[in-house]
Design a protein that fits this description.
single chain, 282 residues, alpha+beta, Dihydrodipicolinate Reductase, domain 2, five-stranded mixed sheet, four-stranded mixed sheet, 8 helices, metal-binding, Class-I_Fumarase/Tartrate_DH, 4Fe-4S, 4 iron, 4 sulfur cluster binding
């Protein structure tokens, strides 16, 4: 396969782990001006960490996370899967990324970040010769405080807001705030989780195109920041950099909700193939 090869996926993983997307870094620089005292010192340390990782080409965080792939293509899925698997094997040694995946029963680590149902790849069929691979790396600190709810549909938007705020409040400083909150609403349990991850792939200042969701995003950002948890949990004006919502229609008797909390180090990157050339974009 000449369009997407192992080398470019390894390079994308290197950039994913060692450099933050520009929109996230700009947002951190923006909120720095709002913070005072200890919270400003914390944000300064985060910004310094980003610069050091970029210059020294080392991972931004020691927890290089579970790497998840979102693939849109019209090619043979098996070929792309094999290329991604080989890229993960190489990235463990070459980036390097930490071998995080273990058997959930024995906790045995195979040392290559693979295993049963790994790497995690979501395929979506596109019938135009175009290939897009979005890559997301998410660590355990933020994953462990994320939550899934099957709400009573009678609770409506008020119930959604209460669940989101309660999740963030209980997470406190554990997910390394300022956080980005990806929210999946509707579908069923597993689709709500998938939608919440897709929400994290959106540019940080891109609001939902659906007015109800857009208004909810803005209300939640304000309410989360009013919690006062602040950078790294030391207090301050900024607990969340962004809230993004993706949604789907659901069963009339259910209201699935996933609150997917992401630390400040939102590591995402994309590989695009337009039929002629392949490039890495942030």
């Amino acid at each position: 396969m000449n369009d997407i090869d192992t080398d470019i996926i390894v390079e994308a993983i290197r950039k994913l782990e060692c450099d933050l997307p520009e929109d996230i870094e700009r947002k951190l620089l923006e909120i720095r001006e709002k913070e005072e005292g200890l919270s400003r010192i914390v944000v300064d340390s985060i910004i310094e960490n980003i610069k050091y990782a970029r210059e020294e080409k080392v991972p931004i965080c020691q927890d290089t996370g579970i790497i998840e792939f979102f693939v849109k293509c019209s090619k043979e899925f098996k070929k792309i899967k094999k290329v991604i698997e080989e890229a993960i094997r190489r990235a463990v040694k070459e980036v390097p990324i930490r071998a995080n995946t273990v058997n959930p029963f024995t906790r045995e680590n195979q040392g290559e970040n693979l295993g049963r149902f790994h790497p995690i790849i979501h395929f979506e069929y596109e019938d135009d010769g175009f290939i897009e691979i979005d890559i997301l790396a998410k660590g355990a600190g933020s994953e462990n405080v994320s939550r899934v709810y099957m709400l009573d549909p009678l609770k409506g938007i008020k119930g959604i807001k209460e669940a989101v705020i309660d999740t963030v409040r209980k997470a406190d400083g554990k997910p390394c705030p300022p956080i980005i909150v990806g929210i999946g609403i509707g579908g069923n349990m597993e689709l709500a989780i998938h939608l919440s991850k897709c929400a994290l792939l959106r540019p940080i200042n891109q609001r939902s195109s659906y007015e109800v969701a857009r208004n909810l995003e803005e209300e939640l950002i304000e309410e989360i920041n009013n919690l006062g948890i602040g950078p790294m949990g030391f207090g301050g004006k900024t607990t969340a950099l962004n809230v993004a919502i993706e949604w789907a229609h659901c069963h009339t008797a259910s209201l699935p909700l996933c609150v997917n909390i992401q630390c400040w180090a939102l590591r995402r990157i994309s590989i695009l193939y337009d039929g002629k050339e392949t490039k890495i974009v942030r």
